[in-house]
From TrEMBL:
Alphabetically ordered keywords of this record: Lipoprotein, Membrane, Palmitate, Signal
Keyword hit for Manganese: no
A Gene Ontology term for the protein's cellular component: membrane
Pfam families hit by this protein: Lipoprotein_9
Protein name: MetQ/NlpA family ABC transporter substrate-binding protein
Source organism (scientific name): Pseudorhodobacter turbinis
Subcellular location(s) per record: Membrane
Keyword Ubl conjugation listed: no
UniProt topology in membrane: Lipid-anchor
Endpoints of the signal sequence: 1-20
UniProt cross-references to SUPFAM superfamilies, sorted A to Z: Periplasmic binding protein-like II (SSF53850)
Length: 258
């Protein structure tokens, strides 16, 4: 009887695996990839087989989604998504919130922003939304003043007052951790900081406020938002197990936003 029960269980699991919906979800390195790996475990018994596809930059995941190479992605905040849809004509839809990851300032040369010298080199992301986010952080910290009305996407051209004469290096976000040997400070997205071995809570010398508009989201193609697997994906992500994993793994440097 025991053997029969065991065999029945194995067959049931095999049948579930064969019937499972299979999707590919694009992520960026760091916390987005790590969290989605945990979502895979939650989603499997729910009948959803997730193949996590890791991309090294912020541009390709939306292109891959729009082209049908993946079915969903989880790597970006809302302002970035809106900018991408406006500039590239993507027809994408938000189906659920994920996390907020405050951007941090890192340095191998100083341990306090008060020590930042005049003419210092500041490395920031070169995409409009994350570059603008970095400049807004510097403004919040009193290091520069931006022209009024620039919203969430200011560029260095929108700096009205730069008393320290800071010099900006605009680089691909994924490359910023590598600039710490040359730049005086680098403003790095949390996922790339974590992927490079930095601990946002312990290694940053300043952090963005947690109550910011940069909530990350799960995104699918327009027209797919009501498919059954989408509901399952979001439910798996929003599970208590994932919330616990995030709280324990990142200790406040990544915040759940659902």
């Amino acid at each position: 009887m025991l053997r029969l029960t065991t065999l029945t269980s194995v067959l049931a699991l095999a049948a579930t695996a064969l019937m499972a919906e299979q999707i590919k979800v694009g992520v960026s390195p760091g916390e987005h990839a790590e969290i989605m790996d945990e979502v895979v475990k939650i989603a499997a018994p729910m009948g959803l087989d997730i193949d996590v596809v890791e991309f090294s930059d912020y541009v390709i995941p939306n292109t891959a989604l729009a082209d049908g190479d993946i079915q969903a992605n989880s790597f970006q905040h809302v302002p970035y998504l809106e900018n991408q849809m406006k500039d590239r004509g993507f027809e994408l839809v938000v189906v659920g919130n994920t996390i907020t990851a405050p951007m941090g300032i890192y340095s191998d040369k100083i341990d306090d922003l008060a020590k930042l010298e005049d003419g210092a080199k500041v490395a920031i992301p070169n995409d409009p939304t994350n570059g603008g986010r970095a400049l807004l952080l510097l403004q919040d910290l009193g290091l520069l003043t931006l022209t009024e009305g620039t919203g969430l996407v200011p560029s260095p051209l929108d700096i009205a007052d730069n008393a320290k004469g800071l010099k900006f290096l605009e680089l691909d976000a994924a490359q910023l951790p590598r600039t710490l040997a040359d730049a005086d400070i680098a403003i790095i997205n949390t996922n790339y900081a974590i992927a490079s071995g930095l601990n946002p809570k312990n290694d940053s010398i300043a952090m963005e406020k947690s109550d910011n508009p940069y909530v990350n989201v799960i995104v699918v193609r327009k027209g797919d938002e009501n498919l059954p697997w989408v509901k399952t994906l979001v439910e798996a992500y929003h599970s208590d197990e994932i919330k616990t994993f995030i709280n324990e793994a990142y200790e406040g440097s990544v915040i759940t936003s659902w």
